[in-house]
Amino acid sequence: MRAPRPEGVVTRGTTGINRLRRSDRWAVHHPDIAGVLRSAPDPLVVDLGYGAMPVTTLELASRLRSVRPDLRMVGLEIDPERVVPGRDGVRFARGGFELAGLRPVLVRAFNVLRQYPEDAVAPVWERLRSGLAPGGLLVDGTCDELGRRCAWVLLDRDGPRTLTLAWSPFHIDTPSDLAERLPKALIHRNVPGERIHDLLQAADRAWATAAPHAAFGPRIRWRATLDLLRAQGVPVSPQRRRLRDCVLTVPWDVVAPA
Q1: Mind listing the UniProt keywords for this protein, alphabetically (predicted)?
Q2: DSSP character at residue 84
Q3: Which tens digits make up the pLDDT trace of 15-52?
Q4: Is the pTM above the cut of 0.90?
Q5: Distance CA 93, CA 98 (A)
């Protein structure tokens, strides 16, 4: 059977070792991602747009295999010159938003849509979601070059579910510094009157209020910040374990464009 023609355009392809470690750690411990991997008859995962080097795909495969040892990982790149021989149980192939005809239970697309116009996001999300296996999930995210500032959206077949912001506690001054790394669906919405702007401003105010906790380190201060946000009615997702990162997850409707 002939593979479908790749959909999309070639991106810059910048990548680096451990650049996506924060989202990897989150994915391994996310109950829905772990659940879909454990229950899938065919635990196929696609890393879409892995860039000039496949290191982050190999890292994701290694980490997710702690959840499902027999996981199948395929890295897809639209640029044929970036397709490399498979190794460590990971296969690489040419493909784009059509997912090379595969039906994965999980798709990760990091730093792909950042290079597209904002009005391309919804159609691409719909295209990717239509290619998921039943119960499948999509993670669309963005991060800086060293992976210290990250943001991603979790989607299922029905649409976006949550937004997560994650960053190194030692390389940021205020939560709103994450604005430059928001996913494409939100990066142009950080202006007064938009929900994402309201959330970042609320996080900054809570962070400032939690300043007395700074003597105990930024992680302790961030936990106090989360408590303040919850007390203010922000539906912050609970953290099920102690995290080395500062992480803020909210339902999508909290930040959806007005």
Answers
A1: Methyltransferase, Transferase
A2: -
A3: 889 999 999 999 999 999 999 999 999 999 999 999 98
A4: yes
A5: 12
Residue 14: count of CB within 10 angstroms of its CB? 11
For the stretch 33-59, what's the b/e string if a residue is b when 16 or more beta carbons lie within 10 angstroms of its beta carbon? bbebbeebeebbbbbbbbbeebbbbbb
Calpha distance 242→192 (Å, rounded): 33
d(CA 30, CA 84) in angstroms, rounded, equals 30
Helix then strand count (H, E) for the chain reads: 7, 8
Task: Please report the DSSP string for 107-163 in residue order.
Answer: EEEESSGGGS-GGGHHHHHHHHHHTSPTT-EEEEEEE-TTSSEEEEEEEETTEEEEE
Tokens encoding 43:
């635990």
Which residues are CB-neighbours of 198 under 8 A, at least 6 positions away? none
Q: What would the 3-class secondary structure string for 50-68 be?
A: CCCCCHHHHHHHHHHCCCC
Q: Which pLDDT value is given to residue 115?
A: 86
C-alpha to C-alpha distance for 175 and 236, rounded to whole angstroms: 14
Tokens of 176: 């709103």
CB crowding 203-216: b at 16 or more within 10 Å, else e: bbbbbeebeebeee
The DSSP element (H or E) to which 251 belongs, if any, is strand 246-251
Determine whether domain 21-169+237-252 maps to CATH 3.40.50.
yes
Each residue of 72-129: pLDDT tens digit? Answer: 999 999 999 999 999 999 999 999 999 999 999 999 999 999 889 999 999 999 999 9
